[in-house]
Amino acid sequence: MENRGINCGRSLAFKEMREMNSSWRSVLHLGRKLVWPKGHRVPFGQELYFLDRGRVRLTNQNMEGVEKILWYIHEGCVFGETPFFDPMPAESYFSCATGCVSYAFTAENVEEICKDYPHLLINLLCSMSRKLRVLSNQASSLYLDNVLARTCKFLAQHIIPGSDPLTANMGVSKQEMASLLGVHRISLYKILRQQEESGLFGPFSGKTVTILRPEEFFMLARS
């Protein structure tokens, strides 16, 4: 089933970051290797990070302690750019969704990279632009799209290539998915149950779900 159109506009609202900065592996010798366990909270501001293995989660927290997951970043990506280049108090934080191996770069390291490896600076600007696009589309989707459309946008980014019947692997728990989509978990469970009963989705099995009406599904994902 063709999925043309799920990589543009609000369809990108819940896209996860993968291998956007793989070229930075050529300068890992300049950084400091760090090994973090699952659940570790990453310190902000003093260093720029490259994720070599694992997955980290960016979460925003308000003064009342209410949290909203913004996105997940996978291996091959630089992260922590905003507090590194704009060191203001942050309401967001990165934590390790899995065990992680990362490399930390100081300001001196980054200055050296900019001077001796200018193509990596261009690569960083491109990935930061993609993150800005994703975040702006997420804000638009949270305001303009209903829960079902947001759910389809999220699942469309997690389709298992070549799956027949079409299958999505969420990669996160339903509670994490609800936080990412900006809804209460009970509201998400209700929508998923309704769509199972209507025949859009098959039963959820762990973190995977079968898409039973792909044409309708992709229409919602592109809306």
TrEMBL record:
Gene Ontology, cellular component aspect: cytosol
Domain named Cyclic nucleotide-binding: which ranges?
45-89
Which GO MF terms are attached to this record?
DNA-binding transcription factor activity
Q: Which InterPro entries match?
A: cNMP-bd_dom, cNMP-bd_dom_sf, Env_Response_Regulators, RmlC-like_jellyroll, WH_DNA-bd_sf
Write the protein's name.
Answer: Cyclic nucleotide-binding domain-containing protein
